[in-house]
TrEMBL record:
Keyword Signal tagged: yes
PROSITE patterns assigned: NHL (PS51125)
Presence of keyword Hydrolase: no
Signal peptide from the UniProt entry: none
Domain of life: Bacteria
Listed name of the protein: 6-bladed beta-propeller
PANTHER family (alphabetical): BLL1368 PROTEIN, PEPTIDYL-GLYCINE ALPHA-AMIDATING MONOOXYGENASE
SUPFAM superfamilies: NHL repeat
Keyword field: Glycoprotein, Repeat, Signal
Transmembrane stretches, start-end: none
NHL repeats, residue ranges: 158-204
Pfam families registered for this protein in UniProt: NHL
Amino acid sequence: MAVATGGLRYELVEGWEKLPESFEFGYTHGIEVDHADRVYVLHTKSPNLVVFERDGRFVAGYNVEGIGSGAHGFYLHRESDGAEYLYITDTNAATVIKTTLQGEVVLRLNPPILPDVYVEGKAYKPTDLAVAPNGDIFVTDGYGQNWIHHYSAAGEYLRSFGGTGKEPGQLKCPHGISVKLTGAEPELYVADRGNNRFQVFTLNGEHKRFIDHNMDKPCSFYIRDGLTYFPDLNSRITIFNDEDQFVTHLGEDQQAYKQQGWPNLPKSYYRPGRFSSPHGLCVDSHGDIYVAEWISDGRLTKLKRLS
C-alpha cells in the first residue's frame, strides 16, 4: 500500500513484528516508541508489555504488576534528564501507574477525590494520561464519569474538571489526552470520543476551543514534527497539520466497523493496509507509523514513511 496525500507517502511493511511462538497477543490497546526507536506494545495477555526493535525483532516481554484485562492507556515520557518512563492505565482495576521501560512500578496514583461523583454504581475507569512539561499528570476517566484529573509529578491530587455533557468543558468518553507544545502555551488536547470531536483546554482545565472536522471516533493522539496523528476507531488513521487542518486519512475502511461482530471479525476479513479498529499509534524518528488495533488477539501495523 502506498498513500500520497498532502505531500505524505507511506508503504506498508507486512509481517513487521516477530513475536515468539510462545507469546500471543490479547487486545493490543497501546503502542509507544522510545528515543532509540524501540517499539513498546501494551496488551491484555501475559507478558503484557512487549518490546521490539524498529525492524520488528523481538527484544523482551515483561509483566507489569497491577495491569491485567483492563490494560488500556499507554504513554512513554522522556524527562528533562533524558530518563524515559511508561505511564499505564487499567480501566478494570482503576489503576494508573508510572513504570520503568522494563515495567517496574515507580509511582502509583491514588483514585481522584470526588465523593459526589464516585458514588455506588459510578466507577472510576481511567483510559489515558498525559504529562505536562513540569511533570504534572493528567488522567482521563473516559469509561467512567467523564472527568479529567490533574496530579502533580509526585502523584499529589490537585484538581478535576469536565463532567458529562456536550457544552464547552463537558465531555462524553474523554478517551485520550495529550499535551501539545507547539503553540504559544502548552495545551491539553482531549479526544472527546463520544462527542466525535477534540476539545482543547489550558493546563488549568479551562476550555479553549473545539475541533470537530474530518473525524468520527478519535481515540488518542501522537504529536511529532508538526503533525498530529490520531486513530479513528471507525477504521482509519487521520493526520492533521500543526494548525489542526486535515492532511490525510490512511488505511480507511468504512465498511469494517459496520460488520456484525466488530471489532472481532473473522481473520478472512482483515486486509493488509486497511484498518478495522485502530486504537493506539506512535511515530518513530524516521516518520514511520506503528498502529495497534482493538482486536481480541491483537493486530499491529507498520507504515514506512517514504516522503
